[in-house]
## 1
Amino acid sequence: MNESKIQALLKQGEGLRIEFKKCQAALNKDIYETVCAFLNRSGGELLLGVDDDGTVTGIDESLIRQIKSDFTTAINNPQKISPSCYLSMEEVIIDGKAILSIYIPESSQVHRCNGKIFDRNEDGDFDITGNNTLVSELFLRKQTSYSENRIYPYVTIEDLREDVIARVRKMAGIQRPGHPWQEMDDFELVQSAQLHRKDYQTGKLGFTLAAVLLFGRDEVILSVLPHFRTDAILRRENLDRYDDRDDIRTNLIDSYDRLMAFVEKHLPDKFYLEKDQRISIRDHIFREVAGNILIHREYLSPFPAKFIIEPHRVYTENSNKPHGHGPISPANFSPFPKNPAIAKVFKEIGRADELGSGVRKLFKYGRIYSGADPQLLEEDIFKIIIPLALQDTAQDTEQDTTQDTAQDTAQAVMQDERTLKILEFCRTPRKREEIQALIGVSHREYFRKEILTPLLEQGLLHPAAPGKMTSPKQKYYSGAQQNEKGVENNSIEFDGIGKLNGGKNPEDD
């Protein structure tokens, strides 16, 4: 948050969506009650290091790191805030003094602080736990405000795809070793993600629309939402027709993969070094775009989401419940979660970041990718426009030539040969550094993110000790080896050079 916006909040003073806390050397004891009340009401801005009258008192700079750590630990502790939430602090200097700014979005769930339910009004935070009428009204408001909370009492666990739930469980474990989802069965995982809830109008328990969209079988999704569709289109020659199309009508986890596959197929990826490490600017940009289409969408609207690649731009459209109107930029927006339950699952598996970081990332990498800022337009139909530089358009068009087809084929073969080499090498369990040495990759973090993690996610490699992912003694294996629990994994079948039966190719380094 920039200084001018903080100054405007200070002038406005405390109210329904603004709260000041002095917090010079430690966090106030009631700060979490305010967080809970903001989550339950309309969200808000919490400024630490500011007196009740708006006077900036500042925070001891030597203690800021500890205060941030204490806040992050508590806010992710279900014993303190339940369900836990993801919030981040931003340090801002005002009049030479350091303060901490926390943006708290309205949540789609009812939260408790230390087991109590707090709500917000103009005078502050109020414990409404013992008031059954106010508690029921709060639950009803959350259920009607967020369509992802709509409950379908006749959907059963058998209507959800156990393979997709298993994949999400595995991806969450890779992102955070020891993730609690790893020890849960399918129903417990979905329930933990707040996707099985009570309908306070009928009293019935059931899976939510978010659960159906994330994990449902295709026929169940289309029965619940017959209009559900994400349309990926390529238009190069005649803009009234299309050159390629993917009509996506499946769960959100697989939908994300298909959108990214469409991007990889039709958009160039510039060579770019960040801190001496090669990164894919294209993927950084379009992971955010794909995530926005799927996470921040009003699913009850029949308007189909669109992802369209044209010669000079990529643009997307999806139905939206706007919380403001007009262009969005990193300097003038307040992030607002449209489907927090869906967003939380995407964050747990590493496909979404902190709320608001996506806009900053789009602008940062968009300028590098095309030399121009992207456009984000908040209306009833939310639009993102990513310009494509002329040289990128020419390069993309040339991919249709025989020469470029041959280059793409050679690169794919090289990728598969590297993967085959790793899998063959790991028929005997190997340490990370041994695999890196085999393929000549010295950068540890690059190897972990771009090579090892995709192979683990695709089930091509397995950790010898799944419960000890951070152990320096960890080894990885392919084929039918046994892990520390004695569970045998199926062998990977090979179908000639450059083809694997068991997962898509990892990116080349």
Note: DSSP finds 16 helices and 25 strands in the chain.
## 2
Amino acid sequence: MQNIKVGLLGFGTIGTGVVRAFQKNPGLLASRLGARLELVRIADLDTTTDRGVQVAPGLLTDDAHTLLNDPEIQIIIELIGGYEPARTFVLQAIRNGKHIVTANKALLAKHGEEIFRAAEEAGVNVMFEAAVGGGIPVISAIKENLGANDFSAVYGILNGTCNYVLTRMDEEGEDFADVLVEAQRHGYAEADPTFDVEGIDTAHKLALLISLCFGTKVDFDQIYTEGISRVTALDIEYARDFGYKLKLLAIGKRDGEQIEARVHPTMIPANYSLSSISGVFNSIRLVGDFSGPVMLSGYGAGMLATASAVMGDVLAVARDLRTNTSIRVPAMGCPQSQLKSCTIKPMDQLVTSYYLRFNVKDQPGVLAQIAGILGKYDISIESMIQPHRHEAEAVPIVFMTHVAEERSVAAAVAEINRLDVIQEEALLIRIEENLE
């Protein structure tokens, strides 16, 4: 039986899961592949920490070049994360004719075009199912099973940390800071959670989804990105009162010749299927012209779910190697020459409805002042919540608007923020009513 040799860069949480997959199911993998998958070398700077799995003597090294330059290794799994040295290692492996499997969404969102072009020229695969949605098979679905569709939209709850935090705030009425500490204690959030809670991780994943769905090159830096750190339990309570759930939503939509590309806290109707995605689960909703809406859900992160996606890619590459097939499916679903440049729609041209919360001094005439400025910018109020008068220093006033243009709403909010009755910067949350 043919042996296909694999090298692993990165022996952290996901790398440990991958090693477990190699060790637990070798017979299953061989029977499904018709060849043996052999993990022959692991590289990590830390060669002493106990990961809870035993590896053969000599398998683990701190020198990545022993993998990258080994002519017998055909597949490199990159699980280092970040931009460097991951980029340098991946490009070196490609130059050496090795196929790449990675979970590194940040790397591909920032340097994907360079990496995919190098792989195409070298005639090797770059597979990245684990980069978006953990164990959810969304990348292969877009490239293959749904490949005949012209997509009009993609929506995603793509970060388990944020979804866990928002779910706990909703269910327990706790505030952001307290729930974040709890998430860190349970291992759902990193010690430095910035990439997660400020939406950066989600934006990395959205960049890949937009490229795949719309056949475009996307500049990651053009994706509007806003996190959940200013959302309070009160906002979630008011959203519920208005019939909405609050999610950190990734949105990619065709709008004529432009594409909307944005990540931000979003209110969606409580009866929508995406509203029911709770805890650390992720979900992606695709809208194709033939398939209609398709929704995929599952664990969006974690050792075993992500390792499952990595191993699926390893099997896909190994099947190509076994049949002497070069690149059966291009990395982005089409040759690099077929990817088109796109224009990202400026956020100030967005047209939607809004939730606006102002914390104000509890005194007469405040409501009239705010409503007057909103009217000045042609922003129509659909509904409002104003608590009864009490002795608190500041009270919230909440408005739900009819559809308005973002530039008008932003200008109105900026003017209102300058009023001396405003106690803190207003909170603006966009509402997404139609996910078709």
Note: The mean pLDDT is 92.
## 3
Amino acid sequence: MEIILKEDIIGLGYKNDIVTVKNGYGRNYLIPTGKGVIASESAKKVLAENLKQQAHKLAAQKAAAEEKAAKFEGVALVIPAKVSATGQLYGSVNAAKVAEALAEKGIEVDRKIITMRDIKHVGDFEAVVHFHKEVEVKVPVTVVAENEPVAAPAEAAEEAPVVEEATVEEPEVEAPAEEEAPAEA
């Protein structure tokens, strides 16, 4: 059954696309919910006329999507997760967690436009963000164990000896003071 989509449905198609679906899916879900109409000859002619009239609006939408996609240049996500001894994750990393990680970097994205498989183990993966029919951005996602050291703790390790030296000096000063205190009492 051919259906003209009235809104974007990730995994199926975008608004105004003509897609072929199984009869039951079209008849029982897409058409009753208003997400699609049957692609008859007259409906196809109406769609073609509407697309001609809306060409400039569609170009503006694509330009806006390309602007959003430009924000993703050089963005790579590192997501820490709890890992078992065998390397399996407790739970999984999914589109919602990727959207949260992007929000932490200051990029607001709806989790519904992100497609990826659920990640169940540590490694490098890829998430795809669909902004427009012709504009998609691939974001590299690296899942690491929570307790594994990352590049940032290496800088903290250089500062750590300075802190340790300061703590070593304090007990030496306090030790004689404690010895004198019981002698006075």
Note: The chain has five helices and nine strands.
## 4
Amino acid sequence: MQRARRVVIVSALGYFVDILDLFLFNVVRQPSLRDLGVPVADSLMWGMRLLNVQMVGVLVGALVWGILGDRVGRLRALYGSILLYSIGTLANGLVGSVEAYAVCRLLAGLGLAGELGAAVTLVSETLPQRQRGLGTTLVAGFGLCGGIVAALLAESLSWRACYLVGGGAGLILLSLRLTLHEPALFMAAQQESVRRGSLTLLFATASRRSRFGKLLLIGLPVWFVAGIVIAFSPELAASLGTPGVTAARAVLCSYLGVAIGDLLCGLLSQWLQSRRRAMMLSLSLLLIGLLALLRLRGLSPNGFYLLGFGLGVSTGYWAVLVTTAAEQFGTNLRATVTTSIPNLVRASVIPLSLLYQQLLPSLGTIETVRLIGLGTVALAALALWSLPETYHRELAFVERDSTS
């Protein structure tokens, strides 16, 4: 039990640093680009470009760290990812041009891709079935407070100092992670005569392909809200007649809501003994929140922040989603799936932002957000409706070539 507690605590700290480093760019985007000489009129364009570069790194890292986690060990892959994103984040604080900024965001994104999947895999394979959901909920609930701290840092430190703090925290985390051990389930699976971390095996059957695709669709609304609505909240708020909104405070309020929502959704899934029903309730609340945000005009900045908090609560099914991903697949593919699913969802901000930019000139900000937002919620609800329930599933199984 002491070992299990240590895994939960260190995993929660790891995800905290992951979110802190990931969202530093969102909260320091405007001052950093201004300091690097980017005109105010080009801030949105460059912001989306840098965000997409970061997400390209996340997309590549999603495959690299997950496959390595299944083949050579969860912890070995994790150490490499922490070291890479710590160095990349530290380097962000030293850049002198937007081109160098882009390279550093790419490296940071590549490293950050390995953290959440490893944390959920470690906790899921260490804790017994009845405590698994609670463990991953605590990891996500505390970890998502990293977004809150990122916003607070941006309010009190220069953008360069924020990156130096984030990178330094990653190196401290690396020293803590050295005290952990591989889960017994992973060690047992090493003795099985099966392929590990194989994309060919993952997509070999229609059932696996279907489950993987549905998990991706369920996560789309989370990163539409975080990566577009909240990240570019100053521009959206201005279109709604609410000037003076800052990205740092919007992220602060939103991620306070996300942290609370993750705890509530995780506890609800335990009470209902159903991952699907808990996530469906969150999606219903998100639909209400998006409709309210886009219908209200002339809000005060505090009113906009309050709505951002509500959106955060409604997207707080992130931990339950990643836990579900871990439960859907066998031990020889689990790290690949739990690392790739959240990061592919994160990287979905690339096509979503490109679609946003494509529709913006003809539809305007409000209609563009409404169309994409309602579309992602509808796709997520349809995918969730047909996804198998996994609450009671034991994880001591592997995926074989001849099974679905």
Note: DSSP finds 18 helices and no strands in the chain.
